[in-house]
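In the design runs reported in the main text, the only information available to the sequence generator was the tokenized backbone. The following block is the verbatim input for one such run; it is reproduced so that readers can re-run the procedure and compare outputs position by position.
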């Protein structure tokens, strides 16, 4: 298996027998959510759509998986989402087969999808790799392999030579899984590994990788194995471990 980090996303290409392009946390319709809180910005859905299409053109995948939170507004679907989502998803379908693992923001997403595109909320195994949004406990079938998940919006703040933090940047966190998260019964034949994928949406914000384990955002984040955790930037550059990047005394 090969993992390709697509900086222009951020997006991930998982290559085994199939080439699977993974995009997490699109949060289409976020602008209408911001408007309700007094922040007025023009819709960037078209630009976001074009970035996804550019990733598809660059990687030529066999399948596009949207890893949850395709839409933003909960518990309702906004007028913006009703107007924009159908065209955005059709643009993706014209280029590549589409599948969606629903996230916690995706109530009602099925009305925008074609038959067979909506995957189980507790995740799915495709070509030997598990895919999960990350807000639910995974199907036990996902253990004993790599699990790719979104939901947590990981970012990392790098320090310059005088100790000042640069702007937080999207990051991937790759880790083994500590024992408390493993299902009951016989241990899987292979170790379980998790890869937290950053949010595609540029307005979505993020959680610093050093705080993911204590964030309580999802069952698997509570079991990050600090001994094996590694951090990568959006272009795949290895930058260290959470312990070295986010020492406990840094606040």
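Verbatim output:
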């Amino acid at each position: 298996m090969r993992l390709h980090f697509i900086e222009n996303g951020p997006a991930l290409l998982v290559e085994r027998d199939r080439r699977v392009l993974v995009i997490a946390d699109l949060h289409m319709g976020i602008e209408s959510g911001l408007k309700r809180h007094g922040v007025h910005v023009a819709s960037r859905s078209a630009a976001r759509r074009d970035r996804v299409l550019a990733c598809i053109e660059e990687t030529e995948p066999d399948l596009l998986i949207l890893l949850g939170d395709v839409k933003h507004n909960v518990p309702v679907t906004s007028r913006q989402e009703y107007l924009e989502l159908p065209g955005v998803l059709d643009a993706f379908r014209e280029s590549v087969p589409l599948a969606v693992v629903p996230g916690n923001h995706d109530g009602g997403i099925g009305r925008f999808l074609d038959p067979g595109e909506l995957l189980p909320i507790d995740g799915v195994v495709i070509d030997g790799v598990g895919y999960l949004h990350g807000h639910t406990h995974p199907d036990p079938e996902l253990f004993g392999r790599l699990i790719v998940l979104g939901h947590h919006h990981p970012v990392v703040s790098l320090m310059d030579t005088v100790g000042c933090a640069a702007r937080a940047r999207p990051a991937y966190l790759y880790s083994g899984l500590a024992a408390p998260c493993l299902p009951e019964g016989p241990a899987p034949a292979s170790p379980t590994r998790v890869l937290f994928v950053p949010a595609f949406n540029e307005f979505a914000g993020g959680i610093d990788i050093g705080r993911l384990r204590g964030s309580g955002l999802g069952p698997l984040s509570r079991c990050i194995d600090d001994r094996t955790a590694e951090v990568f930037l959006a272009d795949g550059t290895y930058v260290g471990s959470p312990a070295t990047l986010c020492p406990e005394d840094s606040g």
